Amino acid sequence: MEEKISIIIPVYKVQEYLEKCIKSILCQTYRNLEIILVDDGSPDECGNICDRYAAKDKRIHVIHKQNEGVARARNDGLDYASGDYISFIDSDDWIAKNAYEVLLDGLKKYDADCSVGACVTVIDRDGKLTPKKKKKSPVVCETSEKAMERVLLRGSAVWNRLFKKKIFEQIRFPLDRINDDEVVALHAYAECKKIVFLDQDTYYYRIRQNSITTSAFSLRAVDYYYNSMDNLAFVREKKPELAECAEFKYVKAMLYCYMNLRKLKGNPEAEKIRRDIYKDIRRNKEAAMANRYVTFPMKALMQLFAGGRR
Known about the structure:
Layout lengths: L4 E7 L6 H9 L6 E8 L5 H11 L3 E6 L4 H11 L4 E4 L5 E2 L3 H11 L4 E12 L2 E4 L8 E4 H11 L6 E4 L16 H11 L2 E14 L15 H16 L4 H18 L7 H23 L5 H12 L3
Parallel strand pairs: 1-2, 1-4, 2-3, 6-10
Antiparallel strand pairs: 4-9, 5-10, 6-7, 6-9, 8-10
């Protein structure tokens, strides 16, 4: 019998997009799927949409729960999953018809623990979908260290990937954080021997108004700083040869949050965090100056902020 792929989809306030996502999974050329829809207490029609599709296809399993955020929803999906492989999809995105056939074939062909498909970014302007042009990338096989370096220098998501289930035996998403994909991707790649990045489009990533990734800076965005701090500690312990890459990410996060916290003047919590980051900037200035990945503009900002008044 074909190996089973467990697909985890957190669902919250996406009633306009959810059916497109579900339909793209149901029409997959690879059929042995366990589709886990985690209704995270969505106040709209999402729960009913999930139940309606579950009644039509026995591969769909619905978890209804109180709203606790996307991280816990993904963790609940991981706890439920019974497949040989794990995959994540965001519920406002969709996938190519042959996505899982491509991902599984690539994983096996290159004897990898994780396969990553090519992604098409789609701009959603009031329902009008416009794919962004991109350059085609070749197939690349990377070691654990090289893929972790990619996360630290470029960023990463967890969707559009197929993992062997064993990779997530001990890994769960950190609760009460946004931007947690990079933490989990880094930890997951650390458990892999080989990761293959494929050249075929498998995932359609929707950028829409009022999403977390396009909304204005808020205190929640400071999680970028905390996650970078956690990743630096993890790398120093597990992969010290990547410490300089992790330090670059940390400096980048410090500068981003420090500058944007100015926009929240009058907020006592924002002022406290900004003071803490200021101390970190001063402590890490010399290391940033010596870091080969930190750009000249970033070094100039470190000098400016560390030498000036808070």
